[in-house]
Specification:
InterPro entries: Ciliary_GTPase, P-loop_NTPase, Small_GTPase_ARF/SAR. Keywords: GTP-binding, Magnesium, Metal-binding, Nucleotide-binding. This is CG11356. The chain folds into two domains: 184 residues, Rossmann fold; 44 residues. The protein is built from nine helices and six strands, in the order αβαββααβαβααβαα. A six-stranded mixed β-sheet has the order 2-3-1-4-5-6, with helices on both faces. It is globular, with a radius of gyration of 23 Å. 24% of the residues are buried. It binds guanosine-5'-triphosphate and magnesium ion. The site of guanosine-5'-triphosphate has 18 residues, from helix 2.
Length: 246
C-alpha cells in the first residue's frame, strides 16, 4: 500500500504529481535572457523598454558590470504566460571579458547593435557576435538581433545580406531573428518569436543548461585542484633539491 497525501484533492504539496507537473511547467516558463552588444549599442535603453521601466534622465552612464531587468508576459497579451529575467553585461572591452561567464546559464541571447554606425563598426559588432555564438555554451541557443537608433538609408534586410547573418546563424546552429528597437510592433513580434521558441524548447534547454553549468563547475574545480597540486610539486622539488645537495 502506498502512502497517500492527506491534503485536499488538488493540493500543491511536493508529493502530488499535479504539483510536480505545475512546478516543472513554472520552471519551463521562466527564462534567462542575456543582453549583449558593444558599448553604446543601446542595451540599457532596450532593457528599460522591455521591462516597461522609465530610464531616468540622469542615467546615461555606461554599464560597469551588470544590470538586471524583468519581463512579464501575461496570458491575456499572448498565447502563454512567461517570465524572463534579462541580464545586461557592459559592452566595453574590459566588460566583454565577463561575457562568457554568463553564457552557460542563459536560455537565449539578445544582441544589440547600432544600425546607424559605420560599415566598419557594424562589421566589428557582428564579428564579436560570431565569436560569442561559436562558444560551446551559446551554440544552438536562439538569438534576437536588435537594431538601435534610426537609419533611413539602411534597412534590416540590408544588414542581413551585407553581413551574411543567415550563414552566421547556420554556422553556429542558432535560430536568429532581426527586429528594430524603435519599432514597437517589430520588437514585440521579436520577443514573441523568442519566447515561443524558448517555450517549445524548454525541457531540452533546461537539461542543456544543467549540463553546461555542471561542466563549468567541474572545470573550475579541476583548475583549482591542478593549481594546488602544482604548488605542492614546487614545494616537493625544492625539498628534493635541498636533500640531494646534502
Ligand atoms: N536617439 C537614440 N538614442 C539611443 C538609442 N539607443 C541608445 N541611445 C542613447 O545612446 C546612449 C548609449 O545607450 P546605452 O543604452 O546606455 O548603451 P549600452 O549598450 O547600454 O552601453 P554600455 O552599457 O556602455 O555597454 C545613451 O545615452 C542612450 O540614450 C536609440 O535607439 N535612439
Ligand atoms: Mg548599458
Amino acid at each position: 500500500m502506498g502512502l497517500l497525501c492527506g491534503k485536499q484533492p488538488g493540493c500543491c504539496c511536493c508529493c502530488c504529481p499535479a504539483a510536480a507537473a505545475e512546478e516543472q511547467l513554472e520552471q519551463q516558463q521562466r527564462f534567462k535572457l542575456l543582453l549583449l552588444g558593444v558599448a553604446g549599442s543601446g542595451k540599457t535603453q532596450l532593457g528599460h523598454l522591455l521591462s516597461g521601466r522609465q530610464r531616468a534622465d540622469d542615467d546615461r552612464s555606461a554599464t560597469n558590470g551588470v544590470r538586471c531587468y524583468q519581463l512579464q508576459q501575461q496570458q491575456q497579451q499572448s498565447e502563454f504566460a512567461a517570465v524572463a529575467s534579462i541580464t545586461e553585461v557592459g559592452g566595453s572591452a574590459e566588460m566583454q571579458r565577463l561575457w562568457p561567464h554568463y553564457y552557460a546559464s542563459s536560455h537565449a541571447l539578445i544582441y544589440c547593435y547600432d544600425i546607424g554606425g559605420s560599415y566598419e563598426q557594424l562589421r566589428r559588432s557582428f564579428e564579436l557576435l560570431q565569436r560569442c555564438l561559436q562558444h560551446a555554451a551559446l551554440r544552438g541557443k536562439p538569438v534576437l538581433l536588435v537594431a538601435s537608433r534610426d537609419s533611413e538609408s539602411v534597412q534590416l534586410y540590408d544588414i542581413e545580406h551585407a553581413f551574411n547573418l543567415e550563414q552566421l546563424a547556420r554556422g553556429s546552429n542558432c535560430p536568429l531573428h532581426l527586429c528594430h528597437m524603435l519599432q514597437p510592433a517589430q520588437l514585440r513580434a521579436g520577443m514573441q518569436w523568442l519566447l515561443r521558441l524558448l517555450q517549445a524548447q524548454a525541457p531540452a534547454l533546461a537539461q542543456r543548461i544543467k549540463y553546461d553549468l555542471n561542466l563549468m563547475s567541474w572545470q573550475q574545480r579541476k583548475r583549482t585542484l591542478l593549481s594546488s597540486s602544482k604548488l605542492a610539486q614546487v614545494h616537493r622539488q625544492r625539498f628534493h633539491r635541498a636533500h640531494r645537495k646534502v
